[in-house]
Design brief:
This protein is mainly alpha-helical. The chain contains 17 helices and no strands. The protein has a single domain, classed as MFS general substrate transporter like domains (Growth Hormone, Chain: A, Up-down Bundle), CATH 1.20.1250.
Length: 453
Amino acid sequence: MKNEIKEGDDKTTPAPTGRLPNLPMSTILAMTFGAIGVNMAFTLQGSQMSRITLTIGVDPGDLGFFFLLPPLLGMIVQPLIGKYSDRTWTRFGRRLPYLLVGAPLTVIVMVMLPFTGSLGFGFGSAAAFAYAAIAIALMDLFSNVCLAPFRMIAGDMVNNEQKNLVWSWQQIFCYAGGILAALLPFLLTHLGVANTAEKGFVPDTVIWAYLIGALVLLLTNCVTVFKVKEYDPATFARYHQIEEHHHKENSSLWALIKKAPRSFWELAVVQLFSWIGIMYTWTYATGAMATNIWHTSDPTSAGFQEAGNWYGVMTAFYSVAALLWGFVYAKTRADKRKFWYAFGLFADAISIIIVATTDSQWVALFAFALYGIGNFTINTLPFTILTSSLHGKNEGAYLGLFNIVVCVPQILGSLLSFWLFPLLGNSQSMMMVIGFGAMLVSAVTVAIIHEGR
């Protein structure tokens, strides 16, 4: 039975007109549980994409091409999902129908991607690169289709007092999925699954990790779909103090951008620098560690594949740190959000510079505890601050438009990499140093943010 929120429910604090009620914990857990599977998809992409592309013969200097397509699609699709879900109200809900479509499509692409090297294209072939690029782009596209409803339901149904709690639980479940996804190749290796393969083939450990991730995504998203009931139009309008038929208004995305709250643009500045830092870590950490710790740059070598496995372990480790940090942050005061935002970005910057320069896999591992705090911050605080600055109208559209300020830095970072990488002597470690600098700048720019309507 779905967790329908009704006034008079002894687990729900009744709300006066114009105020969202306090949600029972069962509803909070149900509306965030599906994030486990969604983040398995994102974690596998972040921790294994460079490994897959380098294994099939992609030159490190060309990695930017593969990180360029996903954000290009994301900045188009997310605003459209937001805009049209704002106007959608069906017997299945407002945001959940998009999850019903997005989850099965993500599963299909997750099954496609790891077989990039198994279709006979050949090592270094244009066909293999094209297949990988399309599969990566589609996986990111449909993973974002799955992620968007979770963010938008939180904006629709959660009051300001519970925002820290709900966004924290969403990230706690995200990191639980991230831990499992990141550890899968490492664990499968120790269970006897082959971690190396013929030249140009993706190892079985990676293939099975994606297949398991696809199954978990499907099952966990079913929990959210079948256990959560969104507010009907009349209840939603009463709680948000807006017209009941506001969803029938058809404002253009451009008109909404022009009326965006001040915090939207201020957060965009912070996001610009922080996401360049994240992207350069995703792209170059495996190669940097392979060079600095395992002393190899050959993607077909056992040392390089060990570096790929270890980066998966590090991803799991930072996910544990982030999960634990989520429990701490859930108890923080709403008026301290800017302080914790800057703190998390500084922690992220320190972790990046350590991983870029250390010759010890254990130092890199423990440095990623700081990366976990930073990653939790970047995936939670901007959305908490933004949704507290909105009024219920066009909330999905604004969250979708806000995804553009996540995508643009990745596009810009990818384009810059084609110039920076050769300029820095083809050093993957130096590219991470650039990411460190960008993350420091983002921490400083938190000072410009004004939260609230």
